[in-house]
Every structure is written in C-alpha cells, then in structure tokens.
Amino acid sequence: MSTALALVGAFKAYGEHAALVDFTLDVQPGQIHAIVGLNGAGKTTAMKALVGQTRLDQGEALVLGSPIADASTSSLARLGYVVDEPFGYPELTVLANIAFAARLHGLSSDDAVAASHTWVERLDLHQWAHTRARALSLGNRQRLGFACASAHRPSVLILDEPTNALDPAGVLLLRDALVDAAARGAGVLVSSHHLDEVSRIAHLITVVHAGRVIGTLEPGQVDLERRFFEAVRAWDEDARTGGTA
Amino acid sequence: MTTAIALQWAMFSRSATARVVTALAVLATPLFGIGAVALARSKTITGASAAKFEPFVEGAFGDAVGAVDGQILTVVMMLTAGFAVAWLFGREFADRTYGTLFALPVSRTQLAWAKVTVASSWVVACVTAAIALTMVGLAITQAAGTQGAGLTGSLVVVLLRVGAAGLIMGLLGLPFGWVAVRFRGYIGALGAIIGVVAVSQILASVGLGQWVPYVAPALWAGAGGEEASSSIGAAHLLWALAFAALGAWAAVRAFARATLD
C-alpha cells in the first residue's frame, strides 16, 4: 500500500518570507497524523501544497504516490480536504451541497444523494437538511464542509483546523468520523490548535514552527501543551544563537 | 461534464442574480418595446420627450415596435448576460471558495466550460422568450383594437433579426468572465461592462461601430437607423461571434489556471 500523503523537502517563499523550509512529512494509510503549531507556522501552507492550491518552489507534494499536479482522476476521487474555506454554495441546501460534492468526486447521482442523507444524519445536520447553506451558523457550515469532504469515503483526508468553530457535540462527532475513516484505512492529516483533542485521536503528532518540522510529540500524554511550547522555545533559542535557522 | 453543468445550473438557477437578470432579459423588450410605441401614439407626451418618441409614431404599430426592440434587446442582453457571466465566473472568488475546486476529478476546465454552457443556454432561452413574448404582446395589442399591431411576414423577419442580434450581444457577455477571473470577483467585471457600454456608444456615435463587436449587432438590429443597419454584413457579425468565442475561451483558460499564491 503506497503512502497516502507526503511532502518531501518542500520549500515555499512569499517574497522574503519563507513559509515552508525543507518541510518533510508523510501520512500512512490508516494513520491520523496531526500537525500542531502556532499561527503562521506553515500548517496551512503545507496543506495547500498537498492539494495543489500552492505551488512549491522546491520539493514534492505527493498524494497516493503521485505528485498532486499529475495525479490521476481516480487518485483525486480518493482525496477529500477542507483547507481554508470549506466547499459549499450558499444558494444550495445542505443536502444538495453534500450530493454535489460527492458527484464531483465521482459518485453517481443516486449514490451521491444516498451519501448526502447518510452524512446529514451522521453529523447531526438533519434539522438543516433542506436549509440553504447561507443560513447556517459558522459551526454548522464547518460540519457541512466536513461532510462534503467525506461523503465519497476518501482514502486520504486533509483537514485544516476542522473543529475551530464546532461546539463540543460537533467536536465529538467529527472525532468519531476521523477515527472511523482511519479504521477503514484512510490516511488523515489534520491540523489543530487543540492539543488535548488531537492527543486523543492522533497516531502521530508533528510540531511545525517557522515553516519547518521541528519535532514530534507522543500522543496520549497529559502535558502535551508544555512539551509543545518547550519544543518551540528550544527552536527559537537555537535560531537566535545561530544553530538552526 | 454532466456533473459540472448540473452544479453550475443548480447554483445559478437558485441565485437572486439569475432571477433579476432573467426578469430583465425576458420582460424588458416586450414591455418597453410595445409600451414605448403605445405611449408615443397616445399623444400624451409633450415637451422635450416628444422629440425622443417621434420616430415611434411613424409607420405601422408593429414595425415601430420591431425598430425599438432592436435597440432595447441588444443593450439589455449585453448588460444582463454580462452580469450573469460575471456572477458565474466571479462567485467562487468573491465567496473565497475557489480553493475548494482544486484537486477534483472534475477539473476546473470542465467547471469553467460548464459555466459557459449554462450562460449560453440562458442567453438562448431569454432571447427566445423575449421575442416570443413580444409576438404575443403584439397579437394581444392587435386584438385590443390597435391598428397595425398584427404580425406580418416582414415584421416576423424583423423580430427574428432582432432576436439574432440579441443572441450575439448576449454571447458577447462571455468575455466578461475573463475580467471576473482576472479581478477575482464580480466588481471588476461590472466596471468593465459599464466601460464597454460607454465606449461603444462613443464609437457608434462617430460612425466607427461596424467592426466593434459590441456595436455591430445593435446597428444590424436597427439601433442606428436603416442606413447603419444595411452597412452591417455577415463579416461584421461573424467577427462579433468570434470575439465572443475568443472571450469564452479566455475566461475558461483563466479560470482553470488561476492560482491562490
């Protein structure tokens, strides 16, 4: 089974600002790989590179073994993501948005409709099933975005801060869905600020800082936040004294 | 491609933009065309406005409607189709959801051609409806006792020409999709539409309209009088159509290649 996702030696600069520097990570099938970091650390840029939204200056972004720019239609049909804004047209209902997202990923019209009903139930959106997306709250819009990324049962999921607008109930629903996706063999890359949350579900936690991968954290431990800041401060200190940067 | 067209049609047909531009495109020509001629012949207009309505008083009622419809439909189709295309091509940029269209099995090129297909189909449907409603309106006007409002063979030919000119002007809305992509939203395209209307008016007024894509179909439809209409040949109209096709291709290419960096 090929690696689900990989960034290899990725470098990306916006003018003088280096957003990614020799950034390397991978996600294996069945694995939930969390990346954690402060704002501007490079998490979103890395994810944008993986879905082709950002072109790398150097390095490779691989999805199911192929560079994203050359990925086949069948490979793209196995990818789902929410990076920055979620999929969803304000004029369409919740059900229609999910069904269209599934069709865009290759599901037949009938299967897409069935999947839309399944995910409306699964993410507790049934009350708003026939509501246009423009009328949804931010949290429900985030649930809708996740449903649109997941309705075609992707083999690879990329989620950027998927819980930042969710209520506790939504966080639980999404967490269960991620665990289920990994259990059926999907590779999941997820970024989050909520260290305790990723600690509960991630198999691997990578710390990202200043556009670089600066270390990993052991999931399931209670002092994750302290160890995260220790890693960041150690890197900053090293950079100040000229050891890393 | 079926999915791409279904998506574009679903979102366009449910939008407020579609409702407004469709109402304008379908109703403006029959209502204002028949209304302007009826008003001109009611002898209730006096002062400066009377001179404006003077041309609508001469000849048979239906012929006058055919002449004024050429002016109305061509302008209305260019404006409404321009707005529709600007919305279709600019909405993902305005909503900041363009990034969700990357890495899909249905490519952005297919999605963009679907936008062109929906817009073009909408133009055909609106022009057909506008001309059909004009014919129905004339028939009702005739039945209500207005002399000369009935459909004659020559009037049908005039209305078909007006419809063809409206169709070309509507398709000339497609190039504004390119502007919408380049300016990342509707606003730039709306500015371009206003600019093209203004420049076209100036070029037409100084007699340089024949080879201007946004002027030639309107002149052909009678917006500049009979002499100007007869000066427009097939080459001028084919050039206008070619410009629309070129603009559609440019819009698709720009949409498919836009980046977020």
Walk me through the topology.
The complex is a heterodimer of chains A (245) and B (261).
Chain A: E1 5-14, E2 17-27, E3 32-36, H1 43-50, E4 58-63, E5 66-67, H2 73-76, E6 79-82, H3 94-104, H4 109-122, H5 138-150, E7 156-160, H6 168-183, E8 187-191, H7 195-201, E9 204-209, E10 212-217, H8 224-240
Parallel strand pairs in A: 3-8, 3-9, 6-7, 7-8
Antiparallel strand pairs in A: 1-2, 1-4, 4-5, 9-10
Chain B: H1 2-13, H2 16-41, H3 48-53, H4 61-94, H5 108-143, H6 153-171, H7 175-182, H8 186-205, H9 216-220, H10 226-230, H11 234-257
Key features?
A: alpha/beta, 2 domains, six-stranded mixed beta sheet, 8 helices, B: 261 residues, mainly alpha, 11 helices, elongated
Note down, in words, how this protein is organized.
The complex is a heterodimer of chains A (245) and B (261). The mean pLDDT of chain A is 90. Chain A contains 8 helices and 10 strands. By secondary structure, chain A is α/β, with parallel strands linked by helices. In chain A, 37% of the residues lie in helices and 24% in strands. Chain A has 2 domains: 1-78 and 168-230, P-loop containing nucleotide triphosphate hydrolases (Rossmann fold, 3-Layer(aba) Sandwich); 87-153. Chain A starts with a strand and ends in a 5-residue tail after the last helix. The longest helix of chain A is centred in the C-terminal third of the chain and has 17 residues, at 224-240. A 6-stranded mixed beta sheet of chain A has the order 6-7-8-3-9-10, with helices on both faces. Chain A has a 4-stranded antiparallel beta sheet with strand order 2-1-4-5. In chain A, helix 3 (94-104) crosses helix 4 (109-122) and helix 3 runs parallel beside helix 5. Chain B is mainly α. Chain B has one domain (2-257). The longest helix of chain B is centred in the middle third of the chain and has 36 residues, at 108-143. Chain B starts with a helix and ends with a helix. The model of chain B has no long low-confidence stretch (mean pLDDT 89). Chains A and B meet through helix 2 and helix 3 of A and helix 1 of B.
